Amino acid sequence: MTGKRTLKGNRVPFSRQLIDTAMEIGLYPYFIPITGEQGHRVNIHGKDTVMLGSNNYLGMTEHPEIKKAAKEAIDKYGVGCTGSRYLNGTLDIHLEMENLLADYMGTEAALMYSTGYQTNLGTIFALAGKDDYVISDQYNHASIVDGVRMSRAKVIVYDHNSMSSLEEAMGQLPDEAGALEITDGVFSMEGDIADLPNIHRLCRENDIIIMVDDAHGIGVLGPNGTGTAAHFDLDVDITMGTFSKSFASMGGFIVGNEDLIFEIKHAARSLMFSAAPTPSNVATAMKALEIIRDQPEHRENLWKNARYLKDGLNKLGFKTGSSESPIIPVIIGEEPPTMAYWKLLLDAGVYTNPVVYPATPKDRNLLRNSVMATHTIDDLNFALDRYEEVMNEIPLDDEENDDL
Fold first, then answer.
1. What is the DSSP letter of 190?
2. Of 294, 321, 350, which closes a domain?
């Protein structure tokens, strides 16, 4: 920037020099281009690579019926909506999908947004204001954190999945203050599941609205893949989901009772001032939902693969934390060996996601693995063999690793 007025902004906690150096030595893990289809195997730098870093849990990006639905939607509606849902952007396919979502999730109403991030921003902004309180799990997604900031509500963060900490947070609420409890259903880095039965009990006892961000739970958990609340046979006030994971598309949604959805629909700024989801994205998600609902074998295969990979990693001596889902962390500890593991695995043909501070505590850096229904046993064995080779090259400190 030139001139005397230099913007400080909200810069990343890394210098340009550090990033350039990481790029030069091949340890920059972001913006890696993938050539071709996002499936269980991908092409990276011309190499066939087992994809263990995607949220494509049910492998729907490769499904021929879903590709066909997207193409047919383009032929019928064109490629974009060119306006928000409030104005010219609402198509009949949007309303059809919202009705389908409500029916699938067993609620009165649904509302779609253009992205999952916008879904949390708009919903939280509409629900909580400056005189309200939001009680939020320590490991909740960044979109929840940003939504609370945008709403200007007072926030109380409780220790991850700790019910004693949640009770303590609830004890800080002033009498009669409006309150919203928000938790991920399946936590995106650790792969563990929220203690929703106890969260539900405490919220009902204290007259607190419950919102579950189930981006990683819908399609994966519960009867017909309807998510974490259904997995525990519970009713919550609002469930948020996305199309960019199991539904192989782009967008987000909430479901709940009709009055609440109506209020949010007319207050959510990220809905009001964003272009509507494109017809092809909606058609993709719609066809994926139908397949997920009607063909349980995809979900069954996902869980079989998840158990196989986790068992294999544990037998090799890796720590996978408290994962209870197809998200399986390999907890390394310090950042340098985490990045070395990531690089060696990628060079050997296995793509994982390195998760380092501030996305995780400083001493809990990890590799995030996520399994797909479309992985073959050969894919998973290949990945396990590569993990074993890297462990032989960079042994982990067993004593240090036992503490994680």
1. T
2. 294
| Relative orientation angle of helices 116-127 and 258-265, to the nearest 10 degrees | 100
The answer to the question of residue 4 being in a domain is: no
Neighbours of 148 (CB within 10 A): 24
Residue type, 118: Q
DSSP string spanning 46-115? TEEEEE-S---TT-GGG-HHHHHHHHHHHHHH-S---SBTTTTT--HHHHHHHHHHHHHHTSSEEEEESS
Half-sphere exposure of 217 (CA within 13 A, CB side): 28
Number of domains in the chain: 2
Structural domain containing residue 54: 16-61+296-402
* Verdict on whether the full-model pTM lies above 0.90: yes
CA distance linking residue 132 with residue 179, whole number of Å = 6
In whole angstroms, give the CA distance from residue 109 to residue 51. 36
pLDDT by position in tens, the chain (length 404):
456 788 878 876 667 888 888 888 888 899 999 998 889 999 999 999 999 999 999 999 999 999 999 999 999 999 999 999 999 999 999 999 999 999 999 999 999 999 999 999 999 999 999 999 999 999 999 999 999 999 999 999 999 999 999 999 999 999 989 999 999 999 999 999 999 999 999 999 999 999 999 999 999 999 999 999 999 999 999 999 999 999 999 999 999 999 999 999 999 999 999 999 999 999 999 999 999 999 999 999 999 999 999 999 999 999 999 999 999 999 999 999 999 999 999 999 999 999 988 778 888 999 999 999 999 999 999 999 999 999 999 998 765 455 45
Contact (Cβ atoms closer than 8 angstroms) between residue 132 and residue 148: no
- Alpha carbon 340 to chain centroid, angstroms: 25
User: Both 101 and 176 in a single domain?
Assistant: yes
